[in-house]
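Workshop exercise sheet. Pairs work together: one partner reads the sequence aloud, the other fills in the structure field after running the prediction. Swap roles for the next sheet.
Pair: D.N. / O.F.
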Amino acid sequence: MLKMFTRLERTRNWIIIFFAALLVIGMAVAGVYNQGSTAIANPFKSRDVLASVDGDDVTVADFALRKKLYEQRMGGQFSLSQIGMTGERVLDSLVNDRIIGQESERLDLRPSEEEVRDIIRRQFSDASTPFDLKRYKDYAVKNFGGVTLYEDSIRDGIAAEKLRSFVTAGVQVSEQNVMDEFVRGGTEFGIVYVPVRADELAKKINASDEELRQYYDAHKTDYRYLEPQRKIRYLFINQEKAGANLDIPEEDLRKEYDSLKPEAKQAGVRVQQIVLKVARPELDQEVLGRATELTRRARGEDLQATEEEFAELARGNSEDPATAKNGGFLAAPVKKNAAKPGDVLQPMLDMQPGEVRDPVKTGNAYYIFRRGEAVPKTYEEAKKEIVVSLRNRRSYGIAQQIAQRAVERLKETKDIQKVAQELAPEAHMTPAEMIRETPFVKPNDDVPEIGSSPQFEAAINPLEEPGQVGERVGIKNGFAVPMLVEKRDPRIPEFDEVRERVLEAFRMERAGQQLEQTARELAANSGSPDALKAAAERLGLKAETEEAFTLGRPLGTLGANASVDDAVFALKAGEVTKNPMKVGDYWVVAGVTTRKDADLTEFGKQRTQLMERALTERRTQVFDEYIAAIRRRLEEADKIKIDRDMLARVDEPEAPPTALPRAPINVPAQPAQ
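Structure field:
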């Protein structure tokens, strides 16, 4: 097919061919010298077989290209691992593609060359733009690794659609079933529900000392300490208080401002956008095509556009009225915000002024962004941040110096009270504030006022003898200088040491035994939602409410649950479930306070769209089941073979994206700043 398009170009530059040949040779040599390493040197060129489907190979290059396509589809906002797209799932998609291709071949459903050409023509030309061979080749090479691979993907796509149409041609959906689903989804309920949880019941369970000792004797090995415990007394130097009297001269602030990197002197960057909404899922590719074409029109050879060029396109094409009328400009500059790593606009800060980003799909729309000029941040605007930054750094240094003197004096005197009195004035603290003591702690314990700190654990781990002093260590809000009070070797603790833990375990075990019976008694004694609330209160349980609840939505901490949905839908206003429902580790009793049934006149208005959507979903289900059945037969016949070692080599853990961090699930027409 490329020959047909090549007739439009009669000449080639032999120099380009020469350097291309050198590049290929270089890559081949690199591949040779990288053989034997753990990773594949150039997976996009590797013909190593990763899987075989009834004799049809899936290569490492196929796998690498499919991963690249998935990443591009995400717009770089997610790493594949973040959306659960593991190497196994990528390979599964390729195996299924081979099955679809083989089945299409068997049923003589492969497309003609004219069908392939027609798809390509329509994608790369329109009524006002003739077919552009160079753009076509560039696109194919950039996104698929070559024209042949791209055209193969077009063939496979047409074949898959033909097979899907063939398999699902007789699929129908009942209007009554669609109406029933509309009614279920459109009915609103006021809900009262009581989760019967072990931790809630446990609060009401009392135990005698004798019962607890018996429980401890039966489970004492559960409380064994496998590592040494240490009790630590330490001097605490608060960083903020140590620098409380810091005076930072204006001259230092200005020097700090002058030394800032250029990007730190920005209040943000101006951003323009074009928004193209996807009204229905089946229109996704069409909208993406429009977005791709607008991006091409906006960009020059350097992938950039002037402010006015982009503004003109935004005014004529963007479907966000608020920004379109202003040439696509967002209302405020985009600022660096480490607290919003998923903000789709954050990558704009890493682009060059004038650069136009590839279309990005977020929510139900494709966005085309142009990075404008930086908005400067004056000294006065930056001064507050500079004061905070300098004060933090200098306070840290002061606190660190005081902590080091504390180490030296404590090692000399072994008298923590004396050292605290000496250093308290300089630390701007009282001796009582500086001296702290931990309970007996072991690695991974949550230490009071410190938390779980590997640094603190590392500092106290060398301490073996009472009175031994450790080195200073950074902890929450400052520094600690630890001194060992007592060390206890691994052992089974005495009952009194772990009494609270024994009590908690005893209560939870008893509560777990009582859960179902308590839930059944609650349901039996609740003839109405009000009675359910009263019965829950008597049992020490909490009744929760939900207004305007619709089936399929998460219900508080219970999440979405089909059994709860079915039980609620069967209730009239004023009724309570006769039997409790098991949801995870909980039992649940629910009542309906109000019920507003779906409006069937709305079904009439939306009937066509609802029927189309239901038919599409059913066809997808039937097709997926069809392919899954073929795959099961092939697997049972041992005709699908996967090289797991090779998969492990090519599917090494990926670093999360930096240039394009994760985006929120939904972005408004004008992204939040």
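Discussion prompt: Residues 250-377 form a domain with the Chitinase A; domain 3 fold (CATH 3.10.50.40). What would you look at next?
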